[in-house]
Amino acid sequence: MLQVRLLYRRTYSREIPLAIALAFIWGTTFPIVRLAGDVENVMFWRYVVSVVFLSIIFILYGGSRHSSKFYLYAAASGVFNFLFLYMMYSSLQLVPSNTVATIVYTYPLINVVLGVALGIEKRSVKGFIGVALGFAGVALIYGLNGGYLNAMGVAQAMLASVFFSLSTIFYGVVKGDIYGFTLIQTFVGFILISMIYSPEDISSLNVFIAIIHQGFGAGSIAYLIWFTLVKRSIQLASSLVYLVPAIAYISALPILGEIPTPSSLAGLALVLLGIYIARRGRYHS
What we know:
Blueprint: H1 2-36, H2 39-61, H3 68-91, H4 97-104, H5 107-117, H6 125-145, H7 151-174, H8 178-196, H9 205-232, H10 234-238, H11 240-256, H12 262-284
């Protein structure tokens, strides 16, 4: 028993640096994309960089054959991931980055709602309380800051959360080859953004930094780390929901000069508390 515990701790400790790196990449996404401002331009070149990078990784480490179900789910995940990015990027043009980060990271609560609706999970009192608290946090942020928060931006951030939830659910069903799944997901997004993209200037330093950050970081390395964590330690992967918004709040200060309002911090606390309670309802009901 002692040997099993020691092995678990060593394995868990090896994943912690990955989780921290991922939280940093995703957390800094919000202020960096808001600073760049150019939604379709950043998205298009993010996908270009990601497809090239992930294709090289797949050639080196992937190549497994899969069932048609795997490809179908990876493609569906790509569609929802594209919608998630587009909604999130668009909301960042209208709403402060720390607010968007809080709203987007309500996705575990949406997972609970979808799980119950689809019959995948059982209803629980803790789950209901957690979801209610989390969305009360969002309502608090919008209600007390409604004078300057854009309603469309808030709605887009909520849609982004829903789409990200749907995107992650598909990998949870099939799992398997991380490199193949990520590449298919990214390639589908590239096709979709190509349909609406018009060539634009990328000479702006802020846009260029965002493209590099999103292409190599958030769009490639981050997803490989994310699916690795989901595959190896779902509990550690789940803990990112607490780290990412915190990093978004902290990084927004030097990058954008955004100072969170007391109501935003209170709303974030309610959202995170709601997620914690809802998860306890899922695992202990």
